[in-house]
Amino acid sequence: MTVRLTQYAGGGGCACKIPPGELDTLVATLGGGASRPKEPAAELLVGLDGGGDDAAVVRLDGERAIVTTADFFTPVVDDAFDWGRIAAANALSDVYAMGGTPWAAINLLAWPRETLPMELAAEVLRGGREVAHAAGCQVSGGHSVTDPEPKYGMSVVGMVDPARMLRLDAAEPGRALTLTKPLGTGVLNARHKATGTVFDEAVAVMTELNRDASLAAVGAGVRAGTDVTGFGLLGHAYRMARASGVTLALDAAAVPFLADARAAAVDGFVSGGSRRNLAWVAPHAEFGALAEVERLLLADAQTSGGLLLAGEVPGYPVVGEVLPRGEAPVVVRG
Ligand SMILES: Nc1ncnc2c1ncn2[C@@H]1O[C@H](COP(=O)(O)OP(=O)(O)OP(=O)(O)O)[C@@H](O)[C@H]1O
Ligand SMILES: [Mg+2]
């Protein structure tokens, strides 16, 4: 029996995230003094202020802080091993998005044990372990539950130098904007789910670690960054602009895309999540005369996407610049 894992998922990959506006409202209910421990065992350096960063960070000592994050999602590709690799690269990514190094991870698994063989679950875990080990990250332990819809990911703990973190709220006017992976995994995953066509380039991009990009950014003195995932480039740019009190200007023509992405969007393989991303950002963005399909591509929900960085990083394309806050937090130049 050939199992097509994507057929067991409603939304796939980071496109299955709760929409950004609804998440904002939910997270806002957790804010304020009531959310702090009375006698904290550790100082919180990055928390939910400004809508929340990629990971929570608590101080360990003068030079070191612990980064902690978790990510899991439904199958984004049919192949079990590849899905495991993608989910692990995506979970590790939030540590890299803080400028940190992942140290240890545990598996988070939800599995329809009555309809899918456990051997396939083992393949998923094997893929995840391979990518985490390539990152130098220990993988030991986890948690597994039965669920009609398969889900997989990791909880990851890492280390970061608090003086050299990549924060969401630290983008400064005058900096260039850098994007370290091409966009288009959302539309290609949607086409893969609908037709079974495998896009090797998309799988290669989604399994690639953000480690080198993160190291290069920290080395170049960059202090603001985030990873581009389910809310798309536009959504994550808006979150960074909002948290930093600036405007992010994107040059649409400079944004890199996977080769088959535009055709997939034109042919209508656009997820509901990507359309919601665009609807969420549109009231806060100026698009000029940019065509609708180009707007949708910039809002495309990415799975295990690259880093969006406020600063120039050798080897990676500049896609815009940080400006003082203008009328709109996001400006797209055609
Ligand atoms: N259930 C929750 N309770 C508290 N905070 C949450 C919850 N869900 C999400 N958040 C916080 O909301 C913010 C935005 O969440 P989101 O999942 O987009 O961030 P992320 O972990 O960077 O995502 P990604 O893994 O796609 O890069 C984060 O700071 C996250 O910690
Ligand atoms: Mg993130």
TrEMBL record:
<dbReference type="InterPro" id="IPR004536">
    <property type="entry name" value="SPS/SelD"/>
</dbReference>
<protein>
    <recommendedName>
        <fullName>Selenide, water dikinase</fullName>
        <ecNumber>2.7.9.3</ecNumber>
    </recommendedName>
</protein>
<dbReference type="InterPro" id="IPR023061">
    <property type="entry name" value="SelD_I"/>
</dbReference>
<keyword id="KW-0547">Nucleotide-binding</keyword>
<feature type="active site">
    <location>
        <position position="14"/>
    </location>
</feature>
<feature type="site" description="Important for catalytic activity">
    <location>
        <position position="17"/>
    </location>
</feature>
<feature type="binding site" description="in other chain">
    <location>
        <position position="71"/>
    </location>
    <ligand>
        <name>ATP</name>
    </ligand>
</feature>
<feature type="binding site" description="in other chain">
    <location>
        <position position="94"/>
    </location>
    <ligand>
        <name>ATP</name>
    </ligand>
</feature>
<keyword id="KW-0460">Magnesium</keyword>
<dbReference type="InterPro" id="IPR036921">
    <property type="entry name" value="PurM-like_N_sf"/>
</dbReference>
<keyword id="KW-0808">Transferase</keyword>
<keyword id="KW-0067">ATP-binding</keyword>
<feature type="domain" description="PurM-like N-terminal">
    <location>
        <begin position="52"/>
        <end position="160"/>
    </location>
</feature>
<feature type="binding site">
    <location>
        <position position="94"/>
    </location>
    <ligand>
        <name>Mg(2+)</name>
    </ligand>
</feature>
<dbReference type="Pfam" id="PF00586">
    <property type="entry name" value="AIRS"/>
</dbReference>
<comment type="function">
    <text>Synthesizes selenophosphate from selenide and ATP.</text>
</comment>
<dbReference type="GO" id="GO:0005737">
    <property type="term" value="C:cytoplasm"/>
</dbReference>
<dbReference type="InterPro" id="IPR036676">
    <property type="entry name" value="PurM-like_C_sf"/>
</dbReference>
<comment type="similarity">
    <text>Belongs to the selenophosphate synthase 1 family. Class I subfamily.</text>
</comment>
<feature type="binding site" description="in other chain">
    <location>
        <position position="17"/>
    </location>
    <ligand>
        <name>ATP</name>
    </ligand>
</feature>
<keyword id="KW-0418">Kinase</keyword>
<dbReference type="GO" id="GO:0004756">
    <property type="term" value="F:selenide, water dikinase activity"/>
</dbReference>
<keyword id="KW-0711">Selenium</keyword>
<feature type="binding site">
    <location>
        <position position="54"/>
    </location>
    <ligand>
        <name>Mg(2+)</name>
    </ligand>
</feature>
<keyword id="KW-0479">Metal-binding</keyword>
<dbReference type="GO" id="GO:0005524">
    <property type="term" value="F:ATP binding"/>
</dbReference>
<feature type="binding site" description="in other chain">
    <location>
        <begin position="51"/>
        <end position="53"/>
    </location>
    <ligand>
        <name>ATP</name>
    </ligand>
</feature>
<feature type="binding site">
    <location>
        <begin position="142"/>
        <end position="144"/>
    </location>
    <ligand>
        <name>ATP</name>
    </ligand>
</feature>
<dbReference type="GO" id="GO:0016260">
    <property type="term" value="P:selenocysteine biosynthetic process"/>
</dbReference>
<dbReference type="GO" id="GO:0000287">
    <property type="term" value="F:magnesium ion binding"/>
</dbReference>
<feature type="domain" description="PurM-like C-terminal">
    <location>
        <begin position="172"/>
        <end position="294"/>
    </location>
</feature>
<dbReference type="Pfam" id="PF02769">
    <property type="entry name" value="AIRS_C"/>
</dbReference>
<dbReference type="InterPro" id="IPR010918">
    <property type="entry name" value="PurM-like_C_dom"/>
</dbReference>
<feature type="binding site">
    <location>
        <position position="227"/>
    </location>
    <ligand>
        <name>Mg(2+)</name>
    </ligand>
</feature>
<dbReference type="InterPro" id="IPR016188">
    <property type="entry name" value="PurM-like_N"/>
</dbReference>
<comment type="subunit">
    <text>Homodimer.</text>
</comment>
